[in-house]
Write a structure and sequence with these properties.
two-stranded antiparallel sheet, single chain, alpha+beta, 69 residues
Length: 69
Amino acid sequence: MYEEMLQLGDPERATEPAARHATPATGAPLPSPARSIQAENVSFTYPGAATPALRGVSLTVRRGEVTAP
């Protein structure tokens, strides 16, 4: 990431939108260590699309599982 940031003319301007869109720091702390992460009944629609690209997707990733090569 450091090398990528060197290519930017104004790194602060490039990272400022991330702060606006970051997940709020509310809610309960995760158990230590987290055993799994779950997403249930998730949908996603691309901007400008009339219908979702994903609908009703559920996923559980257990600690130590590999989800991508």
